[in-house]
Amino acid sequence: MKKFNHRIIDYLDGQMNAKQREELESELRDSIQMQKEFEEYESLFNFVKAEKSKVIDKDYAVSIIPAFRKRIEKKRPLRIYNKLAYAISVFSFAALVIIFITLFSSTDENQQSDFFADNSEREDIEIYIQQISADELISSYRENQPEILDSVYKNYYSREIISNDYSVENLFAINDINYEELESLLSDDEMDFVYNEIINKEFF
Amino acid sequence: MADNSQDFELIKNFLDGDESSFNRLIRIYQDKIYWHARRMAGNHLDADEIVQEVLIVIYNKLHTFKFESSFYSWLYRITATRSINYLKKRNLKKLISLDDLIKRKDDGVSVASKIEGTERISMIEQKLQGLPVKQREAFIMRSFNDLSYEEISEITGKSVGTIKANYFHAVNKLKELLRNEKV
Question: Could you give the ipTM of this predicted complex?
Answer without folding.
Answer: 0.79
